[in-house]
From TrEMBL:
Keyword Calcium carried by entry: no
PANTHER family: RIBONUCLEASE J (PTHR43694)
CDD domains reported in the protein's UniProt record: RNaseJ_MBL-fold (cd07714)
InterPro entries with a match to the protein in the record: Metallo-B-lactamas, RibonucZ/Hydroxyglut_hydro, RMMBL, RNase_J_2, RNase_J_b_CASP
Superkingdom to which the source organism belongs: Bacteria
Gene3D superfamilies for the chain: Metallo-hydrolase/oxidoreductase, Ribonuclease Z/Hydroxyacylglutathione hydrolase-like
Pfam families: Lactamase_B_2, RMMBL, RNase_J_b_CASP
Full protein name: Metallo-beta-lactamase domain-containing protein
GO MF annotation terms: exonuclease activity; metal ion binding; RNA binding
Claim: Nuclease is one of the keywords in the record: yes
Keywords attached to this entry: Exonuclease, Hydrolase, Metal-binding, Nuclease, RNA-binding, Zinc
Species for this entry: Agaribacter marinus
Domain (Metallo-beta-lactamase) ranges: 27-231
Matching SUPFAM superfamilies: Metallo-hydrolase/oxidoreductase
């Protein structure tokens, strides 16, 4: 065994996992795998932290958000050893830091066509005009990246083209799940295929590095298809305008809403640049159904309220988003009135409670009927992460030698480890950002590198 305290460079006899973000927290995923003097980065994400100066902001009623990313100093100092960056999917907590760190890394980026287009547009919107060395891959592709062999495995999540990874070296294979769930009716993309993961049991899977987000939730995760029934029931009963706020990246939800609009005789419009951008990318990459279309937002104000549906950004109470403008009466396309309905087809992300509550109160003051997923009698939101039984099934199919929970706070990761143990996985290694996980020996070396955060206004 080669102790990281002796050297921070992995040898041919080492296969290491080093998270700089996303382990011990939800979001901000940035992972490194080390072998034979080289490193492979998996994901490069960001998160938001609010507010920066709470007393000052409260006094002057200022709401500021800091864009926060993991500090990449460790790998920047070893950039000549970085073989490449693999991006598993296009959520902000997996791609958001690329804008700020890629110039220091200057290495190839490997990802699917949908995610590649999201990344390119992010750089363009930030006026960073560079020819990114993106290598577009398809599910099932098998590529050598430095001393690592990487195979992309299609999985189900809440965005198009999510990928799990099989990362192989002569020392064994690691199954990196990234974000996932078992969804047999995902609306976008193919349904979950257990056979794909059962086949991994015949390989030498020395570790399964696994999403822990919903490990504390019982049962199986809810299928995206279930939201169609719940949203359809609510919208069909509404008498005024209907505004539905959801995450812009959840194109399956937007498709579902467009279909419900057709079924209920409503014209549907998009309110929010991020939604328009995601739908545009979906059309470009073949994920948008040809039969579904949108009414230009500028026409919505001229239509009878009972014929209107708006899909809007702002589910987290963001002050400049479309929903917040509607709540304050400054939305140019239309004014909400008493009897209209606003549906939050989303969850409350911890830290955003005050922002959301402010919008909710403003909507109630107008007389708008408000429904949140947390208090709805119908299913109107489905998480993209695995519950207890999803995890149990995956561990029993893959049969790894060791479980490495990630993408969660301490309680989530400990629950994940317990599920792995009950599923027959003999070893579980739980650590946090900055620790080195020796995957060959199922051992942990704490505080391998200092972990810092960079806040970007």
């Amino acid at each position: 065994m080669h102790l990281p305290s002796v050297s921070t460079d992995p040898k041919h006899t080492d296969f290491w996992f080093l998270p700089l973000g996303g382990t011990g927290e939800i979001g901000m995923n940035l992972n490194l795998y080390g072998h034979a003097g080289s490193w492979l980065m998996v994901d490069c994400g960001a998160t938001f932290n609010v507010p920066l100066r709470p007393e000052f902001d409260k006094r002057f009623d200022i709401h500021r958000e800091a864009f926060v990313i993991p500090d990449p100093a460790f790998i920047v100092d070893k950039v000549d050893q970085l073989a490449g960056i693999v991006i598993t999917h296009a959520h902000e907590d997996h791609i958001g830091a690329l804008l700020h760190v890629w110039s220091k890394l200057q290495c190839p980026i490997y990802t699917t066509a949908f995610t590649a287009e999201v990344i390119r547009r992010k750089f363009y919107s930030a006026e960073i005009f560079v020819e990114l060395p993106i290598v577009e891959v398809n599910s099932g592709d098998d590529l050598d990246i430095g001393p690592f062999n990487v195979r992309w495995l299609s999985i189900t999540h809440s965005i198009p083209e999510p990928q799990a990874l099989l990362i192989s070296t002569p020392l064994g294979d690691v199954f990196h799940t990234a974000d996932w769930k078992i969804d047999k009716a995902p609306v976008v993309g193919n349904k979950f295929k257990p056979s794909r993961f059962k086949a991994l049991a015949h390989k030498n899977i020395i570790a399964m590095v696994c999403d822990s987000t919903n490990a504390l939730r019982k049962g199986y995760s809810i299928s995206e298809k279930e939201c169609e029934k719940g949203l359809g029931a609510l919208i069909s009963k509404a008498t005024g305008r209907v505004v539905v706020s959801c995450f812009a990246s959840n194109l399956a939800r937007v498709i579902t809403l467009a279909r419900i609009a057709q079924q209920t005789g409503r014209y549907v419009a998009l309110a929010g640049r991020s939604l328009e951008n995601m739908v545009s990318i979906a059309r470009l990459t073949g994920h948008w159904p040809d039969e579904l279309s949108f009414t230009p937002l500028r026409h919505i104000g001229y239509l009878p309220p009972h014929e209107v549906m708006i899909v809007a950004t702002g589910s987290q109470g963001e002050p400049n988003a479309a929903l917040s403008k509607m709540a304050t009466g400054v939305f140019r396309a239309c004014l909400l009135e008493k009897g209209d309905s606003v549906i939050f087809s989303s969850i409350v992300i911890p830290g955003n409670e005050a922002f959301i509550e402010k919008v909710l109160q403003q909507l109630r003051d107008i007389g708008v009927n408000v429904t949140q997923s947390e208090n709805s009698t119908h299913i109107i939101h489905a998480s993209g992460h695995p519950n207890e039984l999803d995890l149990q099934d995956m561990y029993s199919w893959v049969k790894p030698n060791c479980a490495v929970p990630t993408h969660g706070e301490s309680a989530h990761m400990l629950a994940n480890a317990n599920i792995a143990r009950e599923a027959g996985v003999l070893k579980q290694v739980v650590g946090t950002n900055g620790d080195v996980f020796d995957l060959v020996n199922a051992a942990l070396f704490p505080s391998f590198t200092d972990v810092a955060r960079l806040a970007i206004k």
